[in-house]
Amino acid sequence: xxxxxxxxxxxxxxxGLSGVPLWTSVRWVRETGSTxxxxxxxxxxxxxxxxxxxxxxxxxxxxxxxxxxxxxxxTSIALSVxxxxxxxxxxxxxxxxxxxxxxxxxVLEATGADPSRVELxxxxxxxxxxxxLCGILSEAVExxxxxxxxxxxxxxxxxxxxxxxxxxxxxLRIAGLSENKDALVVATxxxxxxxxxxxxxxxxxxxxxxxxxxxxxxxxRIVESxxxxxxxxxxxxxxxxxxxxxxxxxxxxxxxxxxxxxxx
Length: 264
Prior knowledge:
264 residues, BirA Bifunctional Protein, domain 2, SH3 type barrels
């Protein structure tokens, strides 16, 4: 395997997604500040939904709670899409969860990884061997013609151990998996389009997410703030996408936000 990062092929990805009507345009850039910010700005300027934007390097990438992260050129894929779901805006939080399911499916299809190695951590992290491979950020963008959703996925491809932004992260290279960006993007976005369709048609995406989420059936610590943490066992994901936890005091509570740590 080459130690030099290979760039994604815009033409190959466009061809691979040609049969997926949800995605109407595909664009690749070598570097940008943030693919989410770029699509949000385009939406505000009147761009139609259905855009796919891929970058090899972000200089101002953001995660949840406005956390910043940056990786060397070509070692990760920053991938954002825009869409207008046919569901009320307050329900759009489901898009982050569905994107996690899609990335997991994309990793499995593109790399042939054993499914037991690739897990979801509520609400929107994809793990390989218990370490973070992908983070997801969804945003609702107000435009002159209404609201658009922008969903961003940052996937670590060829980062080495000393390049990792945090110690609990990983990459496809570290995991010994295929680094084919084109196959990964096509498989992920094909699955995401199917999931969005199911969700819009009222099908039970909750069960699909809960089945693949390692936070369900596991002891977890929920960090709500620097001053407040809770521990218990994740028991379900409710219809609003919240993680239901049986706390140590015996009560059940549904969490809409918070950092989740899987405990042994």
